[in-house]
Fold this protein.
Amino acid sequence: MYRVNIYPEARADLFKLEAYLTQSFGHRIANQKIKSLLDQLDGLSYFPRLGKRVPQFVEMESANLFTLQAGKNTVLYHVNDDQAVISIYAVIDIRSELIRAKAFFFRERD
């Protein structure tokens, strides 16, 4: 079994996701979604290669870099077999990132 280590940046992503979900859908739904996502991250300890390899890094030193699609979120993580550690680097929420990209786009056009 691998140990799952969530980096501070990924923790910040989770807090942003929780805030977005709470604002959009309420506390109950936000809590359910975050719990489900954390359960999926915990599941990586048993199935570390559940995600897909990031093709750009397959031939490099970071060949163990993966993405996991978790609902409408993409998790970026690294598997270290020598230490049996999974490092979660980012949790990207497609919805809030799209909203942020749209806001940036329209701000730049003004």
About this structure: Strands lie at 3-6, 52-53, 65-70, 73-80, 85-93.
